[in-house]
# Entry
Amino acid sequence: MARTSVTRISCPNDACALHDRRGRGNVVLHGYSNTRWVRRRRYRCKECGRTFSSTTGTVYNRLQYSARRFDRVAALSVEGVNKSAIARLENIAWSTVARWIERAAAAAHRFNRSRTARVVLREIQLDEMRSFLVSKKRTTWVFAAIEVWSRLWPATVVGARNYRNTRELVTTVMHEGHPTGRTLITTDGFKYYGPAVRRTFGPACVLGQVIKRVRKDKIVTVGRKLVIGSEWKLEQALLESEDSNKLNTSFIERLNLTIRRGCSYLARKTPGHARRRGRLAEQLELFRCYYNFMRPHSSLPGNRTPAMQAGLATRRMRFRDIFAFRGRRSLFALARSRCQVSDGGVEQLRCAA
Ligand SMILES: [Zn+2]
# Structure
C-alpha cells in the first residue's frame, strides 16, 4: 500500500468543486478495500461525498493483482513476448493478459496524446510495412513515421495501403509538429505519398523518394527522385541535416525493425498474427509510448529517449508514470466509459481516450 498522506490526495471526481485540488482538507481516510493480492486504502471526499482509492481513475483501478505485476506484463509485451507466453510466465489467465494489454494501450494512448507539443519537423521519413490478419491472405499495413533528428515516432496508422491511410499518417505528423519551411520528407516510391504530402504540407517542404528495385530479395538498383521542391532547396535541407547527406530511408527502416521486434504480432514467420486490426493497433500504441518515452535510444547521447530529445519530456518515464497518469479527464468518467478498442483500428483507439 502506498503511504500517502491525505493532503497529497485530491478528489478525482470531475463534478466536484474541489476536483484535483490538494491540501484543502476535504479528503479523509475511509478504510480499506481488499483483493486477493493487495489491500488498498480508500478515501472519501467530504465535499462531494464520493469514495475512491489511490488508483481510482488510473489503469490500476480495481485490479485484482498488484500494480507491479501489471507493469511487468506491459514490460514483457513491449519486449515482443506474446500473450500466451506472458500468461505462462506470470501464471495468470490469457484473458487477463489480453484485458490488461488493452487497458495499458488505452493509457499509453492517452499519455501519447497528452504529450504532443508541436515538435520542430526537421527531417521526416515515412514508410509502410506489410503484415497479416488471421492468415497470409489478409494483408494489412503498418504505416509509420520518424522525425530523424530526435528519432521520435510521431504517428502510426494500421490498415489498407491506400490514399486515405497515407493521408491520415501525413496529417497526424503535421498535427504533432510544425514544419520549418524546408522540412525534408523522404519516402519510398509508393504513389500516394506525393499527393498526400502536397495536400498537407504544400510548398513548405522538400519531398524526395528513394526507389529500390529488388530482385530475388536483393536490392539491384536504388533510384532517387525529387517530387516536391527545387534541387537547391533539397541541397540546403541536406546540408542542414545532421543525419543524412543524401536522400535515404534508413532511419525509418531501422524503426520498422525495432517495431517488428517489439510487437509479437509483427514478428516474421510467426503463427501468432493478430486476429483483429484493433488488437494490432493496440499493441503498437503501447509500444510507441514505450519507444518514445521510456526506452533510451542508442544513437542519442546520454541515455536519452526520443521524447527527451524532442523536448516532450525531461526524464525517462517508467510504466508507473504512464499508468498512474490521470490526464485531465476524470477517473470516474474513465471507469464509466471503459476504454474499449475493437475491430476498427486506430480510429477507434483515438475515440477511446
Ligand atoms: Zn470531491
In short: Residues 329-353 have pLDDT under 50 and may be disordered. Residues 94-114 form the longest helix (21 residues). The pocket of zinc ion is lined by residues 11, 13, 16, 18, 45, 47-48, 50 (CB under 6 Å). The longest strand covers residues 119-133.
